[in-house]
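Sequence, please.
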């Protein structure tokens, strides 16, 4: 068993406290956009960062990461003061922030463990994550709760862990990284962030009158008629590392005209197909792949630098389990590649209109697999004065704390293996019965041994009823 998976340690926490802005901030009511407050964003996202001890501090007071980050947080909230408020829900389920200045939740902690004890790799699922990012009772709701929770845990070796949880309706990951960079700059001594925050949520509101002009399959109301919903009580989460050599091996399985596709598209197609095969779905069951696409520059004029709200849409690939499993990998890759064509400014406007007309729905969960690429957004670049983290990225394998979607999402996270080779680590959550099949499928395809050529595909899928 991996050292990290078997690691057990004790975390001692002080009582949670509310950190308020260091200076008076405006009391006002700020509406979220019609992209922000959709049902599928009404949850908290968790990220975690591991830092080594630093020896060359000029100021001895800078040696305590708890004090440094706590003080910087208070100053950063002067600029990002909506985070210190509370969400309220109005007519039509419309969300807005009451900028009350009540503050964000902060936890000081110590753990009897060293960075070395985590082993040679850092990747989710992390041991004792619920202790490194403690869910303060009553803090994880969407409305009337703190919008941000930070726990800083000192380690025995002098390093520390900074774990954070934020309300997704307030920011997407790109926007939250902007906030973290501001926090890091102020922690290192800056008097103000280099990029000032911009609200302007009205830029992504529905038109008047709203009109849905595009097809949004991601929000189809799909009913599971065959009883094939993933058993959430028996989920297993494991991370898989893909080296550059592995990606080249996958490219050899696709037609020549598709080998110029991005690494994200190739790996997404492979994971979608392999995961579907191991779940043993019925051949006629509809399956979807959702990929997150940043829309900041799609809008005309583009959203301003400093915008930290949600500004993305879901790219959608749609087919049946039978076609996806029985056809070569190139079929899945074509679908993933084509989904990029749908992401236009009109699509974004139509989506905001759909949210208003349809009651801000959740995307369809049945038969859906969601992939988010965080390899380039900068979670591993946040510097509070200790340099870059050993690991900076998602704290959990699935989407967050929502049970019905926890097992249907994966992140692409930049990482290095034990030999120091650069690559991408992907947490995958599937039922226990499917994990061994998934690992076997992965290993055979990386050896250029596509199971379609050598195995009976009936082992992976069910016939239509």
């Amino acid at each position: 068993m991996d050292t990290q998976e078997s690691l057990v340690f004790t975390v001692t926490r002080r009582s949670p406290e509310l950190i308020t802005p260091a200076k008076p901030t405006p009391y006002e009511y700020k509406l979220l956009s019609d992209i922000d407050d959709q049902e599928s964003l009404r949850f908290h996202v968790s990220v975690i960062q591991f830092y080594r001890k630093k020896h060359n501090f000029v100021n001895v007071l800078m040696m305590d990461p708890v004090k440094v980050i706590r003080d910087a947080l208070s100053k950063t909230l002067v600029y990002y003061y909506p985070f210190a408020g509370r969400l309220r829900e109005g007519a039509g389920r419309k969300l807005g922030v009451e900028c009350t200045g009540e503050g964000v939740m902060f936890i000081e902690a110590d753990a009897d463990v060293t960075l070395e004890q985590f082993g040679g790799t850092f990747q989710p699922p992390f041991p004792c994550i619920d202790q490194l990012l403690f869910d303060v009772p009553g803090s994880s709701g969407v409305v009337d709760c703190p919008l941000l929770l930070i726990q800083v845990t000192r380690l025995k070796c002098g390093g520390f862990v900074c774990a954070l949880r934020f309300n997704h309706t307030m920011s997407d990951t790109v926007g939250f990284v902007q906030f973290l960079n501001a926090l890091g700059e102020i922690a290192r001594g800056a008097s103000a962030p280099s990029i000032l925050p911009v609200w302007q949520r009205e830029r992504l509101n529905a038109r008047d009158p709203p009109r849905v002009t595009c097809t949004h399959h991601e929000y189809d109301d799909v009913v599971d008629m065959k009883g094939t919903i993933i058993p959430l009580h028996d989920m297993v989460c494991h991370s898989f590392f893909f080296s550059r050599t592995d990606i080249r091996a996958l490219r050899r399985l696709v037609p020549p005209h598709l080998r110029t596709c991005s690494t994200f598209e190739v790996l997404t197609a492979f994971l979608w197909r392999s995961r579907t095969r191991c779940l043993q779905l019925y051949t006629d069951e509809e399956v979807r792949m959702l990929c997150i696409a940043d829309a900041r520059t799609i809008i005309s004029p583009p959203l301003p630098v400093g915008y930290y709200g949600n500004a993305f849409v879901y790219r959608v690939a749609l087919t049946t389990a039978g076609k996806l499993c029985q056809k070569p990998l190139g079929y899945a890759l074509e679908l993933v590649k084509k989904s990029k064509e749908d992401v236009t400014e009109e699509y974004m406007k139509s989506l905001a209109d759909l949210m208003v007309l349809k009651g801000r729905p959740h995307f369809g969960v049945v038969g859906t697999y969601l992939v988010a690429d965080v390899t380039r957004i900068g979670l591993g670049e946040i510097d509070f004065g200790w340099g870059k983290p050993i690991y900076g990225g998602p704290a959990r394998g699935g989407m967050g704390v929502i049970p019905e979607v926890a097992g249907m999402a994966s992140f692409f996270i930049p990482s290095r293996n034990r030999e120091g080779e650069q690559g991408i680590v992907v947490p995958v959550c599937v039922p226990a019965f499917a994990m061994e099949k998934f690992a076997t499928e992965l290993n055979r395809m990386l050896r250029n041994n596509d199971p379609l050529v050598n195995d009976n595909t009936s082992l992976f899928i069910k016939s239509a009823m």
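The radius of gyration is 22 Å.
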